[in-house]
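Thread: "does anyone have the structure for this chain?"

Original post by V.I.:
We have the sequence but no experimental structure in hand. Need at least a predicted one for the grant figures.
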Amino acid sequence: MNQGRLVVIALSRAAILALMIVAGLGGAQADDYPARTATIIVPFAAGGPADITGRIVADIFSRHLGQKFVVENVVGAGGTTGTLRAAKAPADGYTLVSGHLGTNALAPAFYPNLAYDPQKDFAAVGLSAEFPEVLAVRKDFPAGNLREFVAYAKANPDKLNVGHAGVGSVSYIGCLLLHSAIGIKPTLVPFTGTGPVLNAMLAGQIDYECDPVLGTLGQVQAGNVRVLAIAAKKRSAMLPDVPTSHEQGLPEFDCSPFYGVFVPAGTPQPIIDKLSEALTKGLSEEAVQKRFAELGAESIDPSRRGPKALGELVKSEAARLMPILKAANEK
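Reply from O.Q.:
Generated one for you, tokens below.
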């Protein structure tokens, strides 16, 4: 046996040994995980759908894994500031991000120099919730349904002010789909989250927003805000009298953003499995299901909750919406 072959064999054995050591370390980490407080980054301001969902998830992890999972709101750039921080964090399971359709699938459509790759820099843990979006308008807006809104918007695009939680946020994405379908380009007003957007609408500073059901539900029920359409194929159980965009002749306005948990790529698989198992257990609890239903979330079948299902959802939604949003954003 020549010397070169001996070297190759030695290197191969060393590589195998290294992999075994790494695998062993991953298993050891998983056995002890979590050994201290973990942080869930919510890349939007407190009070909005992303924040509420993130806090429900943090409570699930805390109860099922026996350590505190605390929420940290890191706002800016349509959620990409906080998401980038999560992407650059150590891949040890102690920094997670409660991301969504915008931050973890469609951000490249709006940020060509995005400093992270949603699909390569993250590993999926599991789907938390899906919320159909609504078209919510200030209570004195001169339209009573979606058709009247479209007519008014086409006649007065320069008069309209639209609030959103930053370029690439789900509120931005939803209204971009709406504007693309109508063929208008109103004034877009950015905020740090949909909570501040709603406050601005209550103060009469903006005319409307596109936001998941839970973002406006309380103010709608109080009569301070009106909803003209559900951006989905079926009506919301929380707003059963509000017709869908499909019913009102604008099927292009269809947006039910997903919210999910992600960790930095390279996080040991046993830790991801542990997180996913805890999340699945929590989402199966009657109290959690009731809470999400009260917030207007769609029921998620257990088969769609795991890492693989969320990873596939990220890819499919990016493939479906990226071309439309890139074209609309360029216009």
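V.I.: this helps a lot. The CA atoms of residues 175 and 331 lie 14 Å apart.
O.Q.: and The chain has two domains: 34-128+260-330, 133-230.
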